[in-house]
Write a structure and sequence with these properties.
Blueprint: H1 2-10, E1 17-26, E2 31-34, H2 42-50, E3 55-57, H3 58-68, E4 73-76, H4 83-98, E5 102-105, H5 109-123, E6 130-132, H6 139-147, E7 152-155, H7 157-166, H8 168-175, E8 179-182, H9 190-204, E9 211-216, H10 223-230, E10 235-238, E11 245-253, H11 259-272, E12 277-280, H12 284-296, E13 302-304, H13 310-322, E14 327-330, E15 345-348, H14 355-362, E16 372-378, H15 382-389, H16 391-395, H17 409-423, E17 425-427, H18 433-444, E18 448-451, E19 454-457, H19 459-466, E20 476-481, E21 484-490, H20 493-497, E22 503-506, E23 509-517, E24 522-527, E25 533-554, E26 557-577, E27 586-606, H21 615-636, E28 644-648, E29 653-658, H22 666-672, H23 674-687, H24 712-724
Parallel strand pairs: 4-9, 4-10, 5-7, 5-8, 6-7, 8-9, 11-16, 12-14, 12-15, 13-14, 15-16, 20-24
Antiparallel strand pairs: 1-11, 2-3, 17-19, 18-19, 20-21, 22-23, 23-24, 25-26, 26-27, 27-29, 28-29
Helix pairs in contact: 3-4, 7-8, 7-17, 9-17, 11-12, 15-23, 17-18, 17-19, 21-23, 21-24, 23-24
Length: 739
């Protein structure tokens, strides 16, 4: 508690306060057999004992036995409790007994290489060979691997995707493997999870079974989720839900103080106390902002985020691990188990988008039997305000399943092309229905050729597959300073970051966007001297088309889920200070708005018109309800602040949709839990003490019209009426009545 007391005293000059402290302790998992008494190969026993592993945990013992029996399993246990050994030991045993081969996949190249040493220490003394094969392996080393394939191959989903289609030598290794391990599966949410399912379909070739082993510390998993993610049935083997050891968690109420300034201050205090510190944020730009603010408090904090050059990220990891730097600001790139050494303090500048992410990030502190401090800065947004009123609920939440969408046609199209390159030609009648639909779309786009019942690769197929990515579905905008590429952003997010005159930050360097060309997907930026402001886009969203996939009643309201085509028009921007909450904003409008249209997944709710509400009253109620339901999605669907977007109409229609092209699965989870979302929304708008709307209830930092036409009180009346269940809205959910 020492640092928490120090922090409480340090915060006295500020409005912010430590509002709640939770002490977490976790005992060892239940013990299993002594290693010496198991039926494992003597070479493997000797290797484990030499590393100090003399006794198994019960969950490890259960996993080892199940995997040796050939079962598909998901191993669930807290950070640092030995999940890797739980799947690695049986894989080595099966190789020693039967000569079976295994592939272990990690979500990123960095994590795969980080885990190589740990795996090798156990495997090599037994005579089992291990190798990493990814895009960074030289041609010479790659040929050595192909000539003498290892018993255990470590790679990543991206390499598996491209290697299966583009390299027959790589394909031979994969097709000759008996077991596939997907570690850290909490990372496989959204688009990446959709890609994982399609990769598994290619591995199975749609009809054959494969042995799948998976592992995670921080998701709410079920056998149904396993089947959805991997396409095969599997069982859950449970260890302990949290990491071993002690952690002290603190919620800091920012009291309207800038969360970025406050996080930078807390980090600086921790670093000056000699504590190695990691600050998590959920936005690339806010990572840069927070690191810049830390400079003002006399500490140098590096930035670790996606979009940076890989060698720059690796340099930051090494410097933190070695102690050359004592602090780092990171986006979720450091959620995974990359070894950056011992950390004393984890600061979350934003309440993470889901409880699994909170647990994952918290687990990075206090490892190796050290007490860890986990500090979460709570702002004045609706969900933070909700949890400040209910702090015990913050720490007692259930882990949510990972959201992903197995019907994302943009994802399936990529794998149709990749599978076709591997096979040369494919019978359309042999493909699953959605794959056949995706093939027909690719044929219309000229990327494949359909002749009769056959799907045939053409000269565009190879380029399409080579340029595909598992990390996104939208077009990629590449960012240039003169002719030097400094980063990239995916559409539609790029539209909100790279409009003309936008401030864009890279590694604490400030750039001003000069031009965004959506035909060439190129943004031109210019280095600028330090500026004390950032920019926020103003935009409209229009529902172009909706194709219903499912519908149901929620408190009597008709609700539908389906394919949702939206058009975004960025029409201008406002300027905001880094350091102050300004009441008067500098607003600029474009003569020609920037527009992007795409298809995703979403849900439509048809609300009633309340008695006594005129047009303005209704619009204020619907718009505010749209905002607060999206906020509630952070609790019920594990959504980040940018996973879901929305729009509302005077007719009572509220549309909430996935913010990525093709859909991420988040809105589908929201659709299934909409009753819970309304209950949380009622608490938010009913218990806020503002006059008629504020950031603690209905204001959104991502609102395209800068939080205009909103009413907390009218939203409260609307949601009260909805939850009563006396709704008789027209059965027609979508039609000409929306405008």
């Amino acid at each position: 508690m020492e640092f928490i007391d120090t922090l409480s005293n340090a915060l006295k000059p500020f409005p912010a306060v430590v509002s709640h402290v939770q002490v977490e302790t976790a005992l060892e998992p239940d013990m299993g057999e002594n290693v010496i008494d198991t039926s494992l190969d003597s070479r493997l026993k000797d290797s484990l004992i030499s590393l100090g592993i003399t006794r198994l945990y019960k969950f490890q013992e259960d996993a080892i036995n199940a995997i040796i029996r050939g079962e598909n399993v998901l191993i669930m246990s807290g950070t640092g409790t030995g999940k890797t050994e739980a799947f690695l030991v049986p894989l080595i045993e099966l190789t020693l007994r039967k000569g079976e081969k295994s592939v272990i996949l990690y979500p990123t190249k960095a994590l795969a290489r980080d885990q190589l040493d740990r795996i090798t220490k156990i495997a090599e003394p037994t005579g089992i060979s291990v190798a990493v094969l990814d895009g960074d392996v030289s041609a010479k080393e790659r040929e050595k691997i192909y000539e003498k394939p290892p018993d255990i191959l470590i790679t990543n989903p991206d390499m598996l995707h491209l290697g299966l289609s583009l390299s027959y030598k790589f394909r031979d290794i994969i097709r000759g493997s008996d077991h596939f391990v997907f570690d850290e599966i909490h990372a496989y949410e959204g688009v990446l999870g959709s890609h994982i399912r399609m990769i598994c379909e290619r591995l199975k070739e749609f009809t054959n079974n494969i042995n799948v082993i998976s592992s995670s510390a921080t998701i709410g998993a079920t056998p149904y989720m396993f089947q959805e993610l991997f396409g095969v049935p599997g069982k859950i083997i449970q260890g302990i839900p949290r990491r071993k050891g002690m952690a002290i968690h603190a919620l800091v109420d920012s009291k309207s103080m800038s969360r970025w300034t406050l996080s930078a201050f807390i980090a600086a205090k921790a670093i000056k106390e000699g504590l190695k510190t990691l600050v998590f944020v959920d936005s690339q730009q806010m990572a840069e902002v927070t690191a810049k603010i830390a400079d003002r408090f006399g500490v140098n904090m590096a930035v670790h985020r996606a979009g940076l050059i890989p060698k720059e990220r690796i340099r930051v990891e090494k410097e933190l691990k070695s102690g050359m730097i004592m602090g780092i600001v990171a986006t979720p790139t450091l959620e995974l188990g990359i070894d950056i050494g011992d950390l004393d303090v984890v600061i979350m500048a934003e309440n993470p988008p889901s409880y699994p992410k909170y647990v994952q990030r918290a687990g990075r502190s206090g490892r190796r039997n050290k007490i860890g401090y986990v500090i979460t800065v709570m702002g004045d947004d609706p969900i933070d305000s909700y949890f400040l009123r209910n702090p015990k609920e913050f720490f007692s939440r259930k882990l949510t399943p990972i959201p992903f969408d197995t019907s994302n046609l943009e994802v399936i199209k990529v794998h149709v092309g990749a599978y076709l390159i591997e096979k040369g030609k494919v019978k359309i009648s042999d493909l699953p229905p959605l794959w056949a639909k995706a093939a027909k779309e690719l044929d219309k786009e000229g990327k494949v050729t359909i002749t009769g019942n056959y799907l045939i690769a053409n000269r565009k197929t190879l380029d399409f597959v080579k340029n595909s990515s598992l990390r996104n579905t939208g077009p990629i905008v590449r960012i240039y300073d003169n002719e030097k590429k400094i980063g990239e952003r995916e559409l539609p997010i790029a539209l909100y970051d790279l409009y003309p005159n936008a401030v864009y930050l890279v590694s604490k360097r400030t750039y001003i966007v000069e031009k965004l060309d959506l035909k060439s997907f190129r943004a031109q930026v210019k280095r600028s001297t330090d500026v004390s402001y950032y920019t926020k886009p103003l935009y409209d969203v229009e529902l172009v088309e909706f194709n219903e996939l499912d519908k149901r009643k929620v408190y009597g309201l008709p609700v539908a889920y389906g394919e949702t085509k939206v058009k975004i028009s960025v029409k201008g921007y406002v300027i905001k200070s880094f350091y102050e909450n300004e009441k008067h904003e500098n607003k600029t409008e474009f003569d020609d708005p920037l527009q992007f249209t795409y298809t995703t997944k979403g849900l439509i709710i048809k609300h009633p018109v309340l008695d006594g509400f005129g047009l303005v009253d209704s619009m204020e109620a619907y718009h505010a309800t749209e905002h607060v339901l999206i906020s509630a999605g952070r609790v019920v669907a594990g959504a980040s602040m940018t996973d879901l977007s929305g729009m509302s109409y005077p007719s009572g229609h509220v549309i909430i949709y996935d913010s990525v092209v093709g859909g991420s699965g988040v809105s589908k989870l929201m659709y299934s839990r909409l009753e819970d979302a309304y209950e949380i929304a009622l608490d938010i708008v009913g218990k806020c003490d503002c006059e008629d709307g504020c950031p603690k209830c209905i204001y959104s930092p991502y609102c395209g019209n800068n939080n205009k036409v909103l009413s907390r009180r009218k939203s409260f009346k609307l949601i009260q009426e909805v939850i009563k269940g006396n709704n008789t809205s027209d059965e027609r959910i979508w039609g000409n009545s929306v405008s």
